[in-house]
Amino acid sequence: MDHYNSLHECRRCKPCDSELDLEVAEKCTITQDTKCRCKQHYFCNSPDSCHHCDPCSKCENVGIEKECTPTTNTICKRNFWWIYLIVVGIVIAIASVSAYCYKKKRQDFDVNNEMPCPVIQKPSTSEVEPLVYSDVDLSTHIPAIVEVMTLPQVKAFVRKQEIPEPAIEQTLQDHLNDSTEQKIKLFHIWYQQHGMKGAYENLIISLRELKMCAVADKIEKKLNVVTSSNQENGR
User: Fold this and answer.
1) Which of 44, 125, 170, 229 is most buried as measured by Cβ atoms within 10 A of its Cβ?
2) Phi/psi of residue 192, nearest 5 degrees
3) Which residues contact 115 (CB under 8 A, 6 or more apart)?
């Protein structure tokens, strides 16, 4: 009995039930009842007298900030994995935007990397000299022409020739993984729409207007032999 009284019998000492994960903290005496506590790796979830214990939490992969005690649960270190995910997402987004900008800038450079072209003056009607560009059948020379051009340059050229955008997109989709075939088919569309007459002159002048001087020069060299032969036959 833990206080003065007039009772004729004493109280029985309470047990610490191991099935409830309790153990004896202080043994029972004639003036004090048994004091129980939670076993190791267990804690009491009640602020008053403890009747049963709960297992301590485990901090997997994050570490322990404060160990479990008989009266408090384990405190785990804060997990900042979501911050890492956000940082990784931002890095990936920046890398994607940078890659897109670089690709776009590279394509624009491929189209506009030439120095300004000298203006080609057509001879006046009073001159006796023949025209600079004679009509050449380009149909058999299209693969050689597009060989010296990039896909962005070909697209820039056919757009200047007012080829409808749906026709351009459909051609690109039809030959999705073959840029060479895309260039050839786009040129065929333009050539079929334009026709042979004046096509060679239109091609070279348009390329120079698009500031693709080096491309125009390479194509002229490739077709120079054919042009010279046609002019000889004409004379």
Assistant:
1) 44
2) -65, -35
3) 211, 213
Out of 57, 76, 95, pick the residue that ends a domain.
Answer: 76
pLDDT, one tens digit per residue, over 114-160 is 555 655 554 444 443 444 567 778 888 889 898 889 999 999 999 99
Domain membership flag for residue 9: no
Structural domain including 32 reads: 18-76
CATH number at residue 206: 1.10.533.10
Does an H or E element contain 171, and which?
Answer: helix 165-174
Least Cα distance to 217 among 117, 111, 143 occurs for 117
Residues 68 and 148 in one domain: no
DSSP-assigned states of every residue in 14-30 = PP--GGGTEEEEE---S
d(CA 72, CA 68): 6
212 lies in some domain: yes
Q: For residue 42, count other CB atoms closer than 10 A to its CB.
A: 21
* C-alpha of 120 from chain center: 44
Distance CA 144, CA 221 (A): 11
**Residue in 49, 34, 42 with CA at minimum distance from that of residue 70:** 42
Residues 6+ apart with CB under 8 A from 188: 139, 142
- Of 28, 51, 76, the domain-final residue: 76
Residue 131 is predicted with a pLDDT of 41
61-78 residue pLDDT tens: 778 888 998 888 988 887
Count structural domains, the chain: 2
Against a cut of 0.70, is the pTM above it? no
